[in-house]
Amino acid sequence: MEYSVKSGNPEKQRSACVVVGVFESRRLSSAAARIDEASGGFLTQLGRRGDMEGRLGQTLMLTNVPDTLCDRVLLVGCGREREFDDGAYRQAVAAMTNALHDSGAVEAVSYLPDLPVKARDNIWRVREAVQTVDSTLYRFDRLKSRKDTPRRPLRKLTLSVPSRRDLAPGERAAREGHAIAQGMGVARDLGNLPGNICTPTYLADQARELAEQYERLEVDILGPGEMEELGMGALLSVARGSRQEPRLIVMRYRGTDSDARPYALVGKGVTFDSGGISIKPAAAMDEMKFDMCGAASVFGTVKSVLELELPINVVGVVAATENMPDGNASKPGDIVTTASGQTVEILNTDAEGRLALCDALTYTERFNPETVIDIATLTGACIIALGHEAHAVLGNHHSLVSELMHAGRATADRCWELPLWDEYQEALNSNFADMANVGGRPAGTITAACFLSRFTKKQRWAHLDIAGTAWKSGDQKGATGRPVPLLTQYLIDRT
Length: 495
Ligand code: BES
Ligand code: MN
Ligand code: ZN
Hints:
With about 500 residues, this protein is of the alpha/beta class. The protein has 14 helices and 20 strands. It has an 8-stranded mixed β-sheet, with helices on both faces.
């Protein structure tokens, strides 16, 4: 999709479609009021007939609206004006997108970014509109024989900004929104791919392909031999039970010529988590193909950063492995030595994410990063604590955590902090090794982060647990592309 911004009156647009909002009940937005005026009260009459009440998500496509220069006018219901917040705005933009997608209009001019969204400026509204349109049009049909592509798909969307002064910042907002959406698309595609296709070697190939497309990106791939040499006994212990070889994928983005310290993103890339010998129950086990969504968000954010050509250095590290049970798999009670030298008693082979991540985090030290953020579908307990709205964030550096919270609020991709107090560390005590890999049922998200904190003592580090937010279940089953918006915003804020 091609996006642009424009200022000007709706009734004067020569376009296949002009989109305007209507609030409940039948309250015309200012753009709608202009069309109403130009057309001699055409919309007011329609309203009286009861065709458009303004309910959130309602749409009405009109043709032959008198004294306008466009082929169609699309009315989009926006709900109550006083309740028009981030979520309502997104729903209105999504409704617009679906209506345009189903119409024959290949281009449109939308005045929805003019609508007053609580506590958001028009720059935010342009960016969010682009992101929402792109994610609404997202389909994952590459493994279906029949694809539902319309004959005349929407190709070009122009977004309204209030005045000519807003054109340049508006264009930048559209560019950022599109870059974030592209990153989310990458993350969703990787997440949605099944475990038999999206293996550790597949992820490594994707990284190589990205490096071929973009000059600023370099990629290193480590296999089991190199892991052995680096003493990555924890990551290797997860891969033992699988026929698929593990990969440590390193993507280095150079946005500045200087030797500025990079921002490191470290992703859990468990391409399928059966639980290993501590095997999971069968119900919904298919969803454990999404256990690489942390890694997918690293790929996605790297994609956004490449598109935006941000003037910073970034390093993405992905620990890619399967977690499977077989004769060679790790067993409960096994003790392994990590790359940091610390030993771990594996009490539960289903707590594999932290085992894969701890060696990747130790490896990341060599880049001397400014900050390190790991992203992982780490604990079911996170879903119990925060549900499907917020990612959990925990870390050892207060300002890093608050910068992430800020970036999440700015992009409506929010995280919420859980405490990483020393008192919780005790749960990981082991009689036989430096630590156990699980801490029992209480505070599972926190004790998992406690485990990781033992491998990031030298770094400014934060951990995002995205177990509840990385994908949706049910009939909307699929990867969300979160937290690419949060991470990209965090990096934009560093420039
Ligand atoms: N990938 C899972 C966490 C998960 C489970 C995410 C369900 C989303 C939905 C992780 O590897 C895991 O199995 N964690 C265990 C840890 C436990 C053994 C301490 C869990 O949460 O049950
Ligand atoms: Mn697991
Ligand atoms: Zn897992």
